[in-house]
Amino acid sequence: MTTQSTLNRALFDQVMVPNYNPAAIIPVRGEGAKVWDQDNREYIDFAGGIAVNCLGHCHPVLVEALAEQGKKLWHLSNVMTNEPALQLAKTLTDSTFAERAYFANSGAEANEAALKLARRWALEQGGEEKDQIIAFTKAFHGRTFFTVTVGGQPAYSDGFGPKPQGVDHIEFNDLSALEAAISDRTCAVMMEPIQGEGGIIPATQEFIEGVRALCDKHNALLIFDEVQTGVGRTGELYAYQHYGVEPDILTTAKALGGGFPVAAMLTKADIAKSLKVGTHGSTYGGNPLACAVANAVLSVVNTPEVLSGVSDKHQQFVAGLEAINAKYDVFSEVRGQGLLVGAVLNERFAGRARDFLVASAEAGLMCLVAGANVVRFTPSLVITDEEIKEGLARFERAVAAVAQG
Questions:
Q1: Catalytic residue at 13?
Q2: Looking at its record, which EC class is this enzyme (predicted)?
Q3: With contact defined as beta carbons under 8 Å apart, do 335 and 344 qualify?
């Protein structure tokens, strides 16, 4: 058995594929919005596993759900269904625009399913020529070859050979550009209501309404990627509910399992029927363990007290970040919704988001970046006021360290 002293960052370089470059810190336990590393050093977690740990670490409701289901049934093939999957599908369809659910393991897989469904539906609607997918620059939809191609960041998709065809990208929040690009050949438009990896950029109300209208005009499907914005992150169960604009397909993952891998594609019954038996599948999608945990997540998150609390905590973050900025003048704006918050660096600190991330870790705070110019915060939805206050105090120390060189 390898000892803890040798389970270190150096071992990563010896045994892992080098597509990641993790920090030297190795967390070993967590509780709520706090994490402790191998040296028992405490960190406030403003990262939340990139918007995954929506109820923090080791939430008792989730621990109990996993333990209870673990004693009953772990896995079945999709030759059979199971009770936790049926309950999760009913909860999601009862709580959203959708009438049908498909389960997978990750946001990328949910998005892959959404894109494949859109193409099958369009084939039946308009034939092989109705294949165009329109997406947006700076978007991120996953790392499968199809989803990374639809995502609008060539750095992630270049270098793997010929890409899937029929995908066009335009600028986000530019309705005239979409109007010029869309036609009756368009199969689907895919977008994040708030771009996450692209820099925490919310869609404007005018834009999202205009996208819906143009999709209706050209008989194209509107796909909302809510992998990052979903499950209470913005203060509604899903971000589309803020806008009052319904998609045809919605994808959800990350926070859906609170840290346990699970994802879903949600859609209407008349669209869902295009995925006939055998056209798509997933070995682990909808397995009892994952669905039991997801049911527990929704039982806590989809409540008035948690969702209304997200909006209140948003104000605490904005006020705290603006107070820090008044002292150090490092941000040009603070944007986002709910507990998806981005602090945009001004010209003096352009390109240095990672410096703030590193300094934060040294100050005992875990945060994120969204590109080179945005420091991102996606903490637990039930983080306490005291933890927010302490985390912002630690972030101020990090800002001071960077600002003062």
A1: no
A2: transferase
A3: yes
Tell me which architecture the domain covering 4-59+304-403 has in CATH. Answer: Alpha-Beta Complex (3.90)
Residues 6+ apart with CB under 8 A from 380: 32, 33, 45, 48, 53, 54, 55, 56, 339
Do the Cβ atoms of 313 and 388 come closer than 8 Å? Answer: yes
Query: Among the options 45, 131, 225, 248, which is catalytic?
Result: 225
Residues of the chain with CATH 3.40.640.10: 73-301
Grouping H, G, I as helix, E, B as strand and the rest as coil, residue 342 is strand
Q: What is the pLDDT of residue 325?
A: 98
First to last CA, the chain: 43
List where CATH 3.90.1150.10 sits in the chain.
4-59+304-403
Spatial distance between the Cα atoms of 293 and 66, rounded to a whole number of angstroms: 6
Angle between helices 385-403 and 353-362 (to 10 degrees): 120
Q: Which residue among 103, 140, 172, 356 is the active-site one?
A: 140
Q: Which of 34, 130, 138, 254 is catalytic?
A: 254
Write down the mean pLDDT value for the chain: 96
Q: What is the pLDDT of residues 266-322, one digit of tens each?
A: 999 999 999 999 999 999 999 999 999 999 999 999 999 999 999 999 999 999 999
Active site residue 377: no
Structurally, at CATH architecture level, domain 73-301 sits in: 3-Layer(aba) Sandwich (3.40)
Q: Residue 157 pLDDT > 80, yes or no?
A: yes
Pairing of β 221-225 and β 27-31: unpaired
Encode pLDDT of 82-98 as tens digits. Answer: 999 999 999 999 999 99
